[in-house]
Amino acid sequence: MIDLTIPGAIVAFKYVDNQTNNALSSYAKHRMETTADYITGGAWRKLWKKTNEKLKGKEINKDPNIEFIDEILEKTKLKTDDALLELWASLLANALQGKNSIRREFFDILEKINPFDVLMLNVAMDDQYLSCLKKADFSYGTDYNTEARYISKFIADNHKIYDENEMFVSVRYLIQLGLFTENSKVLKFELTPLGKSLKTALTN
């Protein structure tokens, strides 16, 4: 006899599902997607699509962090911006894999930033950008204008960011959130330990 517990219910579900050639899980998945689409205006469908792409080829050997998964779903039910959903999907994928690099404060940070801030974070987390800074400092360290043009071109070519006024506003805000160091500037910015920790949590 199967216990009336969550693990027991899962065993029972899998048994019935196997006996019906996966008809039960297909029906449940359809119902979940339909309900989720109605409630979230399609936000969860986009989130799950991005998450599934990140999980391709991954083996899940640890128990998923159900508490974090539930919180992520709650916080993203009205999110539709692709750039922001990309970050949420990375956290969700890692929560599903049971990784312990996720912090609850990251949820608060992602709720406070806008799509342009995401672009700036992506630059700061780009290892090629870090190489660009080192090369610029070595080659043009005494020539600020040439150095600035070199870094600006890299950011424009690789991350499609052109508005330095928006960059200034975003850098100041990301400093305020504790993700960028206090001495970060418009073209030269650096992650704090918290920012680096977020980068780790977003890495699949």
Task: Provide key terms for this protein.
69% helix, 204 residues, 3 domains, mainly alpha
What does the model show?
The longest helix is centred in the N-terminal third of the chain and has 18 residues, at 23-40. This protein has three domains: 1-40; 42-112, no CATH class; 117-201, no CATH class. With 204 residues, it is mostly helical. It is built from eleven helices and no strands. It has helices at 6-19, 23-40, 43-55, 66-75, 82-96, 104-112, 115-124, 127-140, 144-159, 164-176, 193-201. It is 69% helix and 0% strand. It is elongated and about 70 Å long.
| Tally of helical segments | 11
What is the rounded Rg? 21 Å
Number of domains: 3
Structural class: mainly alpha
What's the overall geometry?
elongated
**Roughly how much helix do the residues carry, as a percent range?**
55-70%
Portion of residues in beta strands equals under 5%
* Amino- and carboxy-terminal Cα gap: 40 Å
Give the strand tally: 0
SSE order, one letter for each helix or strand: HHHHHHHHHHH
